[in-house]
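User: Structure please.
Assistant: Input sequence and predicted structure:
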Amino acid sequence: MTVIKFQKYILLLFVFQLSIANVSAQSDISMSTHWYNRANYNPASIARSDYLYLFTDIRRQWTGVNGTPTVFNVQASELNYAYHSAFGISLVSDQIGLTQAINPMLSYAYRIGKNDESWLSLGIAAGVFARYFNGTQFSAVDDTDPVLFTDLENVISPDINIGAEFQSPHYIFGISSTHLLSIGKKDNVYLNGNHIYGYAIYKNTESEFLNYNIGSQVVYHQGITILEGNATIRLKHPTGLMPGGREIFDVGLTYRSSNQLSFLVGLNITNNLRVGYVYDQSLTTGYNSNSTHEIMIEYRIPSQRASACKCLSEGLWYF
């Protein structure tokens, strides 16, 4: 499948999703580190070669404000190269004030094509979405207010995400749709509404001294479209022992059309262990002066099952 044909399929699927989406009010979790790991909203991206991949991050939004969002995300995935299949597991916890959402998922991706440099993967994730509300923690001025809800309440519902991703030596194209079972349902504060993602990334790893990537993404949710752009530079140290050098440090910048700016930094502790930090800041005057912080950890374990050449490559990280 050529890049042009795949882009046509992406556009058709995106238009189809826009035409049928009737979504509820709740938004997907906000994570700036998705430029390192897209599996949270596109299960097709877990088809990574050469290793068992582990990822976790935590995000604290608007520090200094009581009850602001705190998100915890942990994922694991591995490709079985012989069967062109990748399997993953994830857990997301999102706490805002007196409500908490928990979203455990199992993921599967099928990788099409035997070319180890370019491939198309199709993915699906299934699990449950649970939202809990603890009204007993209300601290009201008037406890006798009849509209005050002071009970415990929770709703658990099945959840499905789908996606497709194409990778080549220099390009990544993807599209995905999350929380499919909420399409067509009435607004409900206990549900998470359908989101549609489309993205394109250009990556270059040919220099001995640095890698860089430039990406753009569009997210559609309940009639609202958010555009996002990212640029990241990853410095390398030439060792003479492996092609491309050893990745050591990266810096990145993201801007969203919601008038938000993010600064990303990452450090390779070892060839297989990376840590990262993201600082988010709203640029809207008078909206919120409190910053948002996010910390991530990536770890990969070389795997014979996931390797194309059975050589357990010490190669570069995927974008």
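The first strand starts at residue 51 and ends at 60.
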